[in-house]
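<tokenise_the_fold>
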Amino acid sequence: MSELVPSQLPLWILLLPLCGFVFNGIIHPVLTRGVTKTNNVISGAVATLAMVASFVVAWTGFRELAAGSGALHTTVYQWVAMSDFSVGLNLQLDRLSSIMALIITGIGSLIHLYSIGYMSHEKGAARFFAYLNLFCFAMLILVLSDNLLFVFFGWEGVGLCSYLLISYWYGESANADAARKAFLVNRVGDFGFVLAMCMLYAKFGTLSFAQLLSLITPDHASYLTGVAVLLFFAATGKSAQFPLYVWLPDAMAGPTPVSALIHAATMVTAGVYLFARMHFLFELAPAVMTTVAWIGAFTALIGGTIALAQNDIKKVLAYSTVSQLGFMFLATGVGAYHAAVFHLMTHAFFKALLFLGAGSVIHACDGEQDMRKMGGLRKALPITHATMLIGSLAIMGIPFFSGFFSKDEILFMAEAMPRGSMGLFTAGAIAAFLTAVYTYRMLRMTFWGEARTGIHGHESPWVMTLPLIVLAVLATFGGFLGVPHELAHSVGLPAQLIGEWLTPVVPAAALDLHAAPLSEGMVSIIAILLSVLGIGLGAVLFKRSFSLPSPSLGKLLEGKYYVDEIYQAVFVRPLYAIGDLIAKTLEGRLLQNLGSWMGIGSSWSGDRLRALQGGDLQVFALVILGGLSLIVAISLFWTNV
């Protein structure tokens, strides 16, 4: 753990988005006498400036860390302080949280700027920008807190904000249902988080990362296996891993900038961050970690296959995120935390770009999201097309775009790490192949060929295209922060800069490069061939039709393996039935009659007690005599005992 240096920078990184929330959530509506009368440009500008200012402070903190400073630390508030128990909101900017803070504030700033154009036709968007700022504030609490309890506050905060933003257009019942589904599925996982915190505090008496790191030893391995399982369960819900991934695609009901923020910043990648932060605990539960790796590989495959048959452009990207998160969990499961954080970063670049590009397409097509009604938009949307093409090349893993480096690093670690295997490598390689196929299909259906239903569209305004261009630059060059050793040595570039940066906080992977079954170069060659084959297969399969050759397989994938229907049958309907039963019996009979019973009881007791206030001396004498007799009887009883 790095040396702690007192600094107010972490506090300012956190407070600036909160100031934006206060302005758009309270001050601006009060000044204009109603949120519907607020000015969208003013709301968007203030919200964006708050995020840009937060990014500048985060960058300042990053530079201090790069100059050799220890972790920047702020004690904001001491919530509970007793002799053996204290809880405080302590903020800490170290090498891991600085990467996350830069992603949140940097990507967040671009999404806020883009939203000014995307929400320009929305009446009273101050509420939207207030939610966006609050969302980023919650994400920053999650990554800047130095203890597990306040990480949980941020964890719950992003859940609340995603609920508010997914149901932003709450007038449509489908949006409210999607928000409710996201909220409830995440609560299932959060139950594991709470239990894990209770177990850790019961054993070690603290939830501070630094103190847990110093107290946890291999002797606690058996106890910590249960904690690791519970934390993994929480991460499964938040990061949309099998079987709790079903909420993420439905979360597309909100405005597209919200989708970009959920997928690219620290909402769905919070589970990956938790693994990297708590690596010292998970390393003592190798069986759990192996399970994590296989769940990640399976999620990468299931997300990739479903994306092949989706026709909603945002649903394709949503299942793509599920698949890419699977890659990250595969990396954490084998102990390659650097590779997971590296892919988290590059994924933030190209997935934010793809979602904002999809939003630009939807904006141009007057809200249309079905790719079967698009086609031929390349000429009408030249900037959107060019930038989405770059984002697609990055996610496909085409050299030398950012996804090429980070995905290859995960594939190499999947077979080279001690907990890795050729089975995990094969699963990851197939998922990478599927990525190229479904991404090509998305581009083909949206931009290329002839227009199919007369939708022509128009390019988006500069406030929307500028973030696309910036993200395209990041998606192109961001991968050079993690150039693999063999390639770096051959071309004279520095190797694994991000790995070196993270090492003081997250130990580097214990790996013998020469002992790996496949070398880094061989893995890269295989990955490139798979990407090219995927593009080629997509070009052949979807030349004339956008359906899969097998109708039954297409129907299965379009139906998302009917997992939602299974959950409906196994969990939702029985729970609704139990709820109806309770409503009809407990509430309908017991509770409704309870009032009548209470009335009868009050009337009966009132009649009996009224005699005590009637002034009848004979009754008073009888009561006194009865009381004395009872006291005498009790006294005699205890005397004999």
